[in-house]
Amino acid sequence: MIKTKLAVFASGTGSNYDAIVEAIRTNQLDAELTILVCDNPNAKVIEKAKANGTPMFVFDPKQYVDKAMFETKIVEVLQEASVDLVILAGYMRLVGPTLLQHFEDRMINIHPSLLPAFPGLDAIGQAFDAGVKVSGVTIHFVDQGMDTGKIIAQEAVKIEENMTREALQQAIQKVEHHLYPQTIQQLISRGE
Ligand code: GAR
User: Fold this and answer.
1) Could you tell me the sign of the dihedral formed by the alpha carbons of 73, 85, 96, 173, in that order?
2) By CB neighbour count within 10 A (0-12 exposed, 13-18 middle, 19+ buried), where does 162 fall?
3) Atom 8 of ligand 1 has which residue's CA nearest to it?
4) Ligand 1 pocket check for 90: Cβ under 6 Å
5) Integer Cα distance of 43 and 40 in angstroms
6) 111 is annotated as an active-site residue
7) Cis peptide bond prior to 116, omega within 30° of 0
8) Which of 16, 47, 107 to mutate to test the pocket of ligand 1 (most atoms within 8 A of CB)?
9) How far from 164 is each of 93, 127, 128, 159, 192, CA to CA, in Å?
10) What is the per-residue pLDDT across 156-178, written as a single tens digit (0 to 9) for each?
11) Does 69 show up as a binding residue in the annotation?
């Protein structure tokens, strides 16, 4: 059986990248991680990918004239690796039309809130400051908006009385690390 080829995009720590690698290793996710795309040459995720032997495309957006230029390069890299599904995992950049038109309906994102609540940056801090009693995690298809695409999966996280911001972040990330691999597997099984 030919495995679905994934590209993971990350900008920072890469704990979701780790969770996906682990799910593949333990056969909970039947896919092949063909490439890590990273827009931050100082990101921690790069060391992890080196250690795991994941092929990488690391770029510095400042070295390109504009987003269309670096996204054209990304499209080339993804096509060369025959990528089927693009997984945004902490890629802190709005995807532009150049990349989106090639991967429409084949690009998903994880966001640390129950969308449509708290889109954009620091969703965990936004929820914490708003004093809501429930937040969570959303996985959605990517469209041209900021965290606006069709929702695929959500899981709630209760914000307990006296919970610190750090504790909320840990609770949300714990959910992310099982929900993302599980949802990717469901999409693959459904042939999406
Ligand atoms: C994750 O919590 C992810 O949901 C969030 O960035 C974090 C990356 O962590 N993404 C967004 O906020 C996108 N709007 P990681 O690098 O440890 O996977």
Assistant:
1) negative
2) exposed
3) 90
4) yes
5) 5
6) yes
7) yes
8) 16
9) 27, 12, 9, 9, 38
10) 999 999 999 999 999 999 999 99
11) no
146 annotated to bind ligand: no
Q: What residues contact residue 89 under an 8 Å CB cut-off, 6+ apart?
A: 8, 9, 10, 14, 16, 17, 20, 110, 180
44-52 helix and 15-25 helix, angle to the nearest 10 degrees: 20
With a 6 A CB cut-off, is 12 part of the ligand 1 pocket? yes
- Report the amino acid identity of residue 75: V
**CATH class, range 4-190:** alpha beta
User: pTM here?
Assistant: 0.97
Report CA(89)–ligand 1 centroid distance (Å).
6
Structure tokens at 93: 């950049």
Please tell me the distance between residue 37's alpha carbon and the centre of ligand 1 in angstroms: 15
Name the helix (H) or strand (E) containing 21: helix 15-25
Number of residues that this document lists for the chain: 192
Per-residue pLDDT reduced to its tens digit, 26-80: 999 999 999 999 999 999 999 999 999 999 999 999 999 999 999 999 999 999 9
**Domain boundaries in the chain?**
4-190
Q: Are 49 and 16 in contact (CB under 8 A)?
A: no
